Amino acid sequence: MPPSTVSYHMESWQHVQVHICRILGIQLIFLVGFGFCMSSSFVSCEVGGCTSNVGSTNQSLNIPPYFEKHITKSYFDKYDSLLDSDFLDFISHELFPGSCELLLDNLNLVLRLSVQQRSLIGDGSHRHLSSSFRFNIQSELIAELPIHFCEAIIIEKLPYGIFADPFELQHLLQRGVFMGAAVFGDTNLELPSVHSNRSLVEVHMDVDLNTFSRHKDGLEINIDLPLHIRYPPLEESGYSNIELGAPDLFMRCSIEAKSHNQSCLLMLKDNGVALGNGPVVWRVPSGIKAHARAVSIVTFISAILSTLSIVLTSVYYSSTKLCKNLKQS
To answer: What is the pLDDT of residues 257-293, one digit of tens each?
Structure first.
């Protein structure tokens, strides 16, 4: 065999090896990145930044949860995931102090939830949860309370398959829609429902009780929260229904004391008031279980054919380029 032919074949084989290594390298990078996303650490994201759930400085200083900027942060400093039973226990035993009981009882008499309306606005995978809460206010009792400042705190415990985007909430915060907003729990936006945990959204809104007490309709709080769905698991019917439960409502007030202002937290109870339009249900399209095997086979064959076509194209291109170089030489 002539030396030029041997050299030609050796160069062709070297080019094939280089292209195969490139393809394998790209696939390896993709698999490593996907694995990193799947095993991402549990984090809690306040709007404007994320911090890992590795402990709390405030917790070591024994600062009560109601003094925190976001009252639910203390829950995720203690628990790894959102469970309704654990959250209820947190509210009952850790969230409320005993120093404001008399004032809180009086404030509970002043505010009475009368109407609660909730609905989903929009279509598709990106919608807004619109909530409206109306409270009756006894104006004659407002003047007797030494309240300096109040803020309403709305806590939405999102079910599996629904999440809020912290960056989207940041834009609303910059526009002055909310006083504060934070997302806690599973904030990995790329995970499907089967690999994700629940998350929680805490929103703060300014409330002036003295101003609202002069309105006959009382105090009304309106909030539009942008939400998104994750890729749902397979269903027999091709649809899954996700129900959003009622939020937890709190009022945190700064009280004018003799020596210093004191912060008190009140949970606004619904007193048996039901949702005006029933529970909110998000009907989400999903894959059909009966089609799963066929889709997997077609996807696998398509991936193999695509890989082979890339390899063959690379080999053909390298051979053509070498032939042209040999002819020119």
So the answer is: 555 556 778 787 766 555 556 788 999 888 888 888 8
CA dist 329 and 326 (Å) reads 5
Nearest to 219 by CA among 321, 320, 112: 112
How many domains does the structure of the chain reveal?
2
206 within a domain of the structure (yes/no): yes
CA distance 24 to 303: 13
Query: What percent of the chain is helix, strand and coil (3-state, nearest 5)?
Result: 40, 30, 30
**pLDDT (mean) for 301-314:** 91
Examine residue 146 and state whether it is found in any structural domain, yes or no: yes
Q: What local confidence, expressed as pLDDT, does residue 266 receive?
A: 78
Contacts of 47 (CB under 8 A, 6+ apart): 166, 169, 170, 173, 180, 181, 182, 183
**What range does the domain containing 238 cover?**
42-285
Q: Are residues 150 and 30 in the same domain?
A: no
164 with 256, same domain?
Answer: yes
- List CB contacts of 296: < 8 A, sequence separation 6 or more: none
Residue 244 CA: distances (Å) to CA of 157, 180, 225: 8, 22, 12
DSSP 198: -
Answer whether residue 72 is part of any domain: yes
CB of 150 closer than 8 Å to CB of 253: yes
3 lies in the same domain as 118? no
